[in-house]
Design goal:
The structure is a single chain. The chain is mainly beta. It has a domain of 98 residues: Immunoglobulin-like. 8% of the residues lie in helices and 40% in strands. The strands form two sheets. It has a four-stranded antiparallel sheet, with no helix packed on it. The protein has a three-stranded antiparallel sheet with strand order 3-4-5, with no helix packed on it. A hairpin with a 5-residue loop joins strand 4 and strand 5. The N terminus is likely disordered.
Length: 154
């Protein structure tokens, strides 16, 4: 199974096999993806699945490790925007109150979707469970497919 935190990509790089490597080669080694993107969760936008059925649309956004309070969902002129910001700060102090270690991280994303006129924006609902944000976007009654019927001739 693919795991972005443990998977690496292989890139073909032209090397100078002399006794003293070039400065550019050292520079390239220092700034590879493995060095800069150890925590890929900071460098990605959550994956989204969109499903349509006769009653409406379901949007599933994968965002593990978040709380439902981390999300903001807005609807403005048929544009659905999903955003999240989270800050985390850890600090350890010694017995004299000086910092011995202080770590902080910040992550954010925003996804926007243009909704068709057939949706009922007043009835959109959302839940967050098991790391997945579920957004239910129902269709208007007049936009739902009607069953076929036979019309009698008078």
């Amino acid at each position: 199974m693919f795991n972005p935190k443990t998977s690496t990509t292989m890139t073909l790089v032209k090397r100078n096999n002399s006794l003293f490597p070039s400065f550019s080669s050292i520079f390239d080694d220092f700034f590879t993806n493995d060095f800069l993107l150890k925590d890929t969760s900071l460098a990605t936008v959550p994956a989204v699945n969109i499903r349509e059925d006769e009653n409406g649309f379901t949007v599933e956004l994968a965002a593990p490790g978040k709380q439902k309070s981390d999300f903001k969902i807005d609807l403005d002129n048929n544009v659905l925007s999903i955003s999240s910001e989270s800050k985390q700060e850890n600090e350890e102090k010694d017995e004299k109150g000086r910092y011995t270690r202080r770590e902080f991280s910040y992550s954010s994303f925003q996804r926007s979707f243009v909704l068709p006129n057939s949706v009922d924006g007043d009835k959109i609902s959302a839940t967050y469970e098991n790391g997945v944000l579920h957004i239910n976007i129902p269709k208007k009654e007049e936009a739902k497919k009607k069953p076929s019927r036979t019309i009698e001739i008078a």
